[in-house]
Amino acid sequence: MTGAARVHRTGWRIARAAAALLFGTAGVLKLVGIESMVGLFETIGWGQWFRYFTAGVELFGAAMLISRRTAVPGAVMLACVSLGATIVNLWVIGRTPLPALFLLALTVGIAGMPIRASHRYLLKKD
């Protein structure tokens, strides 16, 4: 394994671990029902069932990020959650979407890293 490949692989692992920690924490906070999360989902207007659903998706996605084999589908699923959070923050709640946009960029990057690595031969000069 070349030095660049090792750095790429290590970066992918660190990104996966960071995203799993962030989404896992967010999922647990929603699941245990801290006051700010309950209020947030009341403001959204879809009821508390949606808070539990979102928590489950975040926890499941965080668990998927741990395994190399399931990391890409997990990242795509969590990117969809982040996109939804961005939309809700912008048009429903009226708050800044920056945290959700950061998570969206992180998960899209995680999903794209293996693809870029597998097509690297296209960029090599003969």
In short:
The protein is mostly helical and 126 residues long. It contains 5 helices and no strands. The two termini are 20 Å apart.
Shape call = elongated
Distance between the termini: 20 Å
Helix and strand element order: HHHHH
So what's the oligomer here? single chain
CA-based gyration radius: 17 Å
> How many domains would you count in the coordinates?
1
What fraction of residues sit in β-strands?
under 5%
SSE class = mainly alpha
Identify low-pLDDT runs: none
* Mean model confidence by pLDDT: 90
Helicity, in percent?
over 70%
Number of helices: 5
Number of strands: 0
The largest pleated sheet is described as: none
Defining key terms:
mainly alpha, 5 helices
Describe the structure.
The radius of gyration is 17 Å and the shape is elongated. By secondary structure, the chain is an all-alpha fold. It has one domain.
Topology readout:
Elements: H1 3-32, H2 35-44, H3 48-66, H4 71-93, H5 98-118
Helix pairs in contact: 1-3, 1-5, 3-4, 4-5
